[in-house]
Amino acid sequence: MLKRLPAWVGFLIGGMLFVALYLRLPDNVYGVLGWDGVAVAGAVAIVVGIRRNRPEGAAAWWLLMAGQLANVVGDIIYFFAPDGDQVFHPYDVPYLLGYGLQVAGLLVLLRRRGAGRDWSTLVDSLIITSAFALLSWVFLMKPVAEEASLGLIGQLMAISYPALDLLLVAMVAWLLTADGTRNVAFFLVATNMVVFLIGDYFWAFASQTSYDPGTLGGRLIDCTYLTGYIAFGAGALHPGMVAIGRAAGPQQVRPMTLHRLMLLTAATLIAPAVLAWQAYSGGGRVLDAYAIVAGSVVMFLLVIARMTMLVRQVQAQAATLAEHADLLREAAQLDPLTNLPNRRAWNAALPSALQHAARHRAPLTLAVLDLDHFKVFNDTHGHQTGDRLLVEATAAWAANLRPADVLARYGGEEFVALLPGTTAAEALDLLDRLRPLTPMGCTFSAGVATWDGVESGDDLLGRADQALYRAKDAGRDRVVSDDVLAAA
After folding, report:
1. Residue 30 to residues 22, 310, 360: CA-CA distances in angstroms?
2. Phi, then psi, of 341 in degrees rounded to 5
3. 3-class DSSP assignment, residue 485
4. C-beta of residue 446 within 8 angstroms of C-beta of residue 472
5. Which PROSITE patterns match (predicted)?
6. How far is C-alpha 332 from the geometric centre of its chain's CA atoms?
7. How far apart are CA 291 and CA 23, in angstroms?
8. DSSP state of 334
9. Rounded to an integer, what is the distance from CA 107 to the centroid of its chain?
């Protein structure tokens, strides 16, 4: 038994098959009915998709659907109402209304996706739109604006379509460059908008140049609109349409990918390309110099704005990396269990303490502490309890040391302490006060050595370590200096 196709797949396949069939339909009422049937089916599919999938913020989808439906009404009037020679045609009303509804729907959708806070993608879309605006003015809008026979109303009506197409270009470019979900439904909806713009710009170009694409050429352009109706209907039927209107999460400056850089580069080269073309074709005369200058200035300022955003992004990333590096550096010098300085930090602190003691001619005493019978404690009570002993013991010891003192974990159950400004006798007294603070009934042995002002840090540590071994040999639970035995 064949698996049932999802509704959106069936609609897409059936619609595209009809597009292929439409090329062979006669250029009469049957062809018109076929066209309008697909357009109406696309609008109905959008309504069904909205009702079935119930997206959050459905207002955007209803506005987009209303824009599509207005285009359908305009098509029906265009095919069946007499055209005449009037400047303002009946079908202009639904067509122009359709532009407004689609732009409004896209703005609502972009706001829900959080693009309203993403200034970098807005700037990118404006760069692209500025390039289209320059081309539209030079090749589509200016020739109409200079056609006095149309009259003011006729000129405004002729200019309104490419102007509204530019507004739609800006919205579509913003949608395609902004963050957010990019699933099958998203690309189907984007396809609708892109192919409609392609069809509009082709017909506008053909109208201005009096180019006749012929029956087949006209049918092929018609197929772009039909593809748009079908793609939008399939996108609305797709369950993924719900995610298109969801927020994209925290916004950040968009990275300048290679594809984006190439697209923006091509857009900014439009102005010099038009300038070169007019200079070449006009024998050095540039007819649209002011428009080209204006377009160049706008795009230059937008590029500067985009560069500023990228510089700020790099600065923010550098600050974040520096902060992370500081955190990693700090973490690399801390023992993860006791949160005391580790052996790496100790190796850096000892030479610094020796230099300070030599510079200020102050005493410096080093102590090595070792928990007594820690392995037996671990084997008896378990490693988790042993870890708790290490944490609680070091916390108790550190709480009774001065801020200038450094207590570090040297390894395992062995710890070292730097006691600047402390004599051997003062160190013995301090460590004897620390021993009773050791929790869980445990004790520690310690050896201390005072710097002689000449020896290296390793030698000083070695003498304190030897004193520790003498403390252990003497019965543990005691502190011994490098030359004095001090029982508990």
Report:
1. 10, 55, 103
2. -55, 140
3. strand
4. no
5. GGDEF
6. 30
7. 40
8. B
9. 20
- Cα dihedral 41, 46, 52, 55, rounded to 10, equals 180
Would the pLDDT of 89 be above 50? Answer: yes
Cα separation of the two ends of the chain:
89
Instruction: Give residue for tokens 């806070």.
Output: 117
On whether the CB atoms of residues 462 and 439 are closer than 8 A, the answer is no
Helix (H, G, I), strand (E, B) or coil at 16: helix
Strands 444-450 and 485-486: unpaired
Work out whether strand 444-450 and strand 479-481 pair parallel, antiparallel, or are unpaired: parallel
> How far is the C-alpha of 256 from the C-alpha of 258, rounded, in Å?
7
Q: Is the pLDDT of residue 71 over 80?
A: yes
Read off the tokens for 130.
């500025």
pLDDT tens digits, 160-203: 888 888 888 888 888 888 877 889 999 999 998 898 888 888 87
**In 3-state terms, what secondary structure has residue 463?**
helix
Encoded tokens for 389 = 């002993």
Distances (CA, A) of 343 to 125, 396, 408, 411, 414: 55, 20, 7, 7, 11
User: What is the value of pTM for the model shown?
Assistant: 0.64
Which residues pair with residue 448 across a beta bridge? 367, 481
Tokens 């992370």 map to which residue? Answer: 324
The amino acid at residue 27 is: D
Encoded tokens for 109: 């959708």
Instruction: Using alpha carbons, select from 438, 439, 450, 456 the residue that is nearest to residue 481.
Output: 450
Residue 338 and residue 395: Cα distance in Å, rounded?
Answer: 8
pLDDT at site 83: 59
Burial (CB count <10 Å: 0-12, 13-18, 19+), residue 100: middle
Q: What span, in angstroms and rounded, lies between the C-alpha atoms of 99 and 121?
A: 22
List Cβ neighbours of 153 (8 Å cut-off, separation of 6 or more). Answer: 87, 88
- Enter the tokens of residue 312: 């700020």
Backbone angles phi, psi at 82, to 5 degrees: -65, 140
